[in-house]
Design brief:
Elements (H helix, E strand, L loop, with lengths): L1 E6 L5 H12 L3 H10 L4 E9 L2 E9 L6 H5 L5 H14 L21
Antiparallel strand pairs: 1-3, 2-3
Length: about 110
């Protein structure tokens, strides 16, 4: 399972909400295909308010979820390019590059 906390850039909350509306509506089948291609069994996003402003907690669940973002980076699939563009526009994250700093370190998991 992969979990990402991604701040929403200033002024981009409405754009994020519109994007999610599209992913749940007109682009639902494209998102389902995207999830199938990456073997994701669950792809969920929660909007949260942090002291620094709005952020998204995104969950990518699948046996190979840890490889999802590194696999997405080099993809040239049409939907993937659009997805990466939106992530960069809304969150300022470039998934074609490794994330800065060390990966999160698991300290507790009652399911293991």
């Amino acid at each position: 399972m992969g979990v990402i906390v991604a701040p929403i850039r200033e002024g981009k909350l409405d754009a994020w909400k519109q994007w999610v509306t599209e992913l749940n509506g007109t682009r639902k089948e494209e998102l389902a295909d995207f999830n199938r291609r990456y073997g994701l069994t669950r792809h969920a996003a929660w909007l949260m308010e942090s002291p620094a402003g709005p952020a998204v907690v995104a969950l990518h669940q699948a046996p190979g979820a840890d490889s999802f973002m590194p696999s997405l980076g080099p993809s040239q699939e049409k939907f993937d390019l659009s997805f990466k563009e939106k992530v960069k526009e809304i969150h300022g994250l470039d998934v074609t590059q490794p994330p800065p700093g060390p990966p999160p370190e698991l300290y507790y998991d009652s399911g293991s």
